[in-house]
Amino acid sequence: MIVETPLKFVYKNWKNETKERTVVPIGVWHGKTEFHPEEQWFLKARDLEKGEERDFALLDIQKFVKA
Known about the structure:
By secondary structure, the protein is mainly β. The chain has no helices and 5 strands. It has a 5-stranded antiparallel beta sheet with strand order 4-3-2-1-5, with no helix packed on it. Strand 3 and strand 4 form a beta hairpin. The protein is globular. It comes from Candidatus Blackburnbacteria bacterium RIFCSPHIGHO2_12_FULL_41_13b.
């Protein structure tokens, strides 16, 4: 049985906009994306607000929030 425990954090996106995000983590990976052209670590997660899988640059997570 897999338990999907939500994780909440404040995230600054590539547009420099800061927002609280609630996600269910899938995994962590290293590489680059269209919005983050330099290699770095990412959190792959299901964004509960957007209802889709997203990649979050770990360097852009500002702080974790109690869920």
